[in-house]
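Lab channel / #folding
Pinned by the channel admin:
"Please post every new chain as: sequence first, then the structure tokens as a reply. Keep commentary short and put observations after the output so the thread stays searchable."

First post following the new format, from NK:
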Amino acid sequence: MSRGSSPVTHHLAQLNVGRLRRPLDHIETAEFVEALGPINALAEAASGFVWRLTGDDGRSSSYVGIPGVDDPLLVINYSIWTDLESLRAFVYKTGHTPYLRRRLEWFERSEQVTTVCWWVPTGTIPDVADAYRRLQLLRSAGPSVEGWPLNRPEAPPGLG
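Reply from TO:
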């Protein structure tokens, strides 16, 4: 390690949720579902990728429910990245971007914030319930160190 640099102590966690217009097994959702594997593989190969939620069967997190939430049309994406720049590069500068632009073909428009980010100690993966709690807190109380939208980042702990 060079003088003046410090070890990475935190990674970036992000959860985003969306409510589908139709179920995952509906013909109108088929193109979205077919893209899950390739887009998830693209994320896993991206610089700065650390981890993503998958179901017990290895399927996309789109098939994982949120504890205490009974809505089969609500799907999630939950991942950990080394830093904000890596997540932004994946979201806005890869093959993921064309699907992001088309999201209203598959998802209902939301008046609420749908993505929350927060810093976690390196090696830590909070459970889905905690991630969703952070989104709910962002929705009700606004940005804080507990959770903030992608476009209003908080500095990592120790760098603020």
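NK: Helices lie at 30-45, 84-93, 96-101, 128-141.
TO: also worth noting, The mean pLDDT is 93.
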